[in-house]
């Protein structure tokens, strides 16, 4: 995908804040509805408009599924204390045993998407996903979390990822913020241990200038040092890149120590930002930063390679 333009370094204002809260848990009742609204607002006239509209449908399906889930089973105080003592996430994505709400959510999403217009490969992938039995859905989810999915099921990763995101976000929403503490390394989510899909710099009074990493799985946000790599935690060689003449609301934080980048979003520039939606809509920035030599630190369920190009999200012809 050829693009015109160049990335330019941007200065950063560290901001002033006394004691920001450590974590912000997702609100499952509004999370996916708000994302759908943001995607729908970003789509018109966008180079990836058909795909953003398809993702809007997925977010709406996730929102519709929230009310259909059985109550989640949370860890007890002993488990939480054990995790705190060892600086471990309380619902580690690779170790926590998912309850029945995961499969219920996966099936609800597939049902909600019935009748949605999509390219034939997507329709086939959805049919394959919906046709799996419970054990097969769980096994697929385990492979997706470990990034070990098989070539023949790549197109299903998007739907499995949406179901996992729904499950872990709903579980995180049930936690008490007081039950959360930093884990090691600090760049990992204190709830599920995932990497950050992006970070957000707050603009609200009392939080202005505070930076929160945004979990790529459960959507928890946790406070993090302003100028520090969101991947390797280095404070050296950090720079902020922006497409020349483009929006300053979304930039790429690049690290010369690990040669990765993570998006950083500024609510002062755009109060309606959603970490997942705006990450997906800023794909041109990914391409230019990647061409300049940095690798994306955190994969996205919604940005899988498409064919030999590798730059486009799957099903980019969705309409």
* H/E element order: EEHHHHHHHEEEEEEHHE
**Which bin fits the share of residues in helices?**
25-40%
Q: Averaging pLDDT over every residue, what do you get? A: 89
The figure for the number of domains is 1
CATH first level: Alpha Beta
Question: What proportion of the residues form beta strands (DSSP E)?
Answer: 5-15%
- Which class best fits the helix and strand makeup? alpha+beta
Largest sheet: 9 strands, mixed
How many strand elements? 9
Unreliable segments of 5+ consecutive residues = 306-319
Commentary on this structure:
It comes from Vineibacter terrae. Residues 20-183 form the FdhE N-terminal domain. InterPro entries: FdhE-like_sf, FdhE_C, FdhE_central, FdhE_N, Formate_DH_accessory. One of its GO terms (biological process) is protein maturation. The protein has helices at 31-42, 49-66, 77-85, 101-112, 120-130, 134-145, 157-173, 275-281, 283-291, and strands spanning 7-10, 23-24, 196-201, 211-215, 221-223, 238-243, 250-255, 260-266, 295-296. The protein has one domain (7-296): FdhE-like fold (Alpha-Beta Complex), CATH 3.90.1670.10. A hairpin with a 5-residue loop joins strand 4 (211-215) and strand 5 (221-223). With 319 residues, the protein is of the alpha+beta class. Strands 1, 2, 3, 4, 5, 6, 7, 8 and 9 form a nine-stranded mixed sheet that branches.
């Amino acid at each position: 995908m050829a693009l015109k333009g160049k990335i330019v370094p941007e200065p950063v204002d560290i901001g002033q804040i006394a004691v920001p809260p450590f974590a912000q848990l997702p609100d499952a009742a509004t999370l996916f509805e708000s994302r759908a609204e943001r995607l729908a607002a970003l789509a018109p006239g966008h180079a990836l408009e058909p795909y953003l509209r398809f993702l809007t449908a997925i977010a709406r399906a996730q929102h519709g599924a929230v009310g259909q889930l059985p109550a989640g089973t949370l860890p007890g105080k002993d488990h939480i204390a054990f995790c705190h003592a060892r600086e471990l996430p309380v619902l580690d994505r690779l170790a926590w045993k998912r309850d029945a709400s995961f499969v219920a959510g996966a099936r609800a999403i597939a049902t909600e998407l019935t009748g949605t217009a999509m390219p034939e490969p997507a329709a086939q992938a959805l049919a394959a996903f919906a046709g799996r039995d419970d054990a097969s859905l769980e096994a697929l989810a385990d492979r997706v979390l470990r990034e070990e999915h098989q070539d023949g099921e790549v197109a299903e990763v998007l739907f499995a990822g949406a179901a996992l995101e729904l499950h872990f976000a709903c579980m995180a929403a049930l936690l008490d913020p007081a039950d959360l503490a930093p884990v090691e390394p600090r760049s990992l989510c204190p709830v599920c241990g995932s990497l950050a899909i992006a970070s957000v710099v707050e603009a609200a009074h009392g939080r202005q200038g505070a930076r929160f990493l945004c979990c790529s799985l459960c959507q928890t946000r946790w406070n993090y040092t302003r100028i520090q790599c969101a991947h390797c935690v280095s404070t050296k060689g950090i720079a902020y890149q922006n497409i020349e003449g483009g929006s300053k609301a979304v930039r790429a934080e690049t690290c010369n120590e690990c040669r990765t980048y993570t998006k950083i979003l500024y609510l002062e520039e755009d109060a309606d930002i959603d970490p997942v939606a705006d990450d997906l809509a800023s794909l041109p920035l990914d391409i230019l930063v990647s061409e300049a030599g940095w690798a994306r630190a955190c994969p996205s369920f919604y940005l899988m390679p498409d064919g030999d190009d590798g730059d486009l999200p799957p099903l980019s012809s969705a309409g």
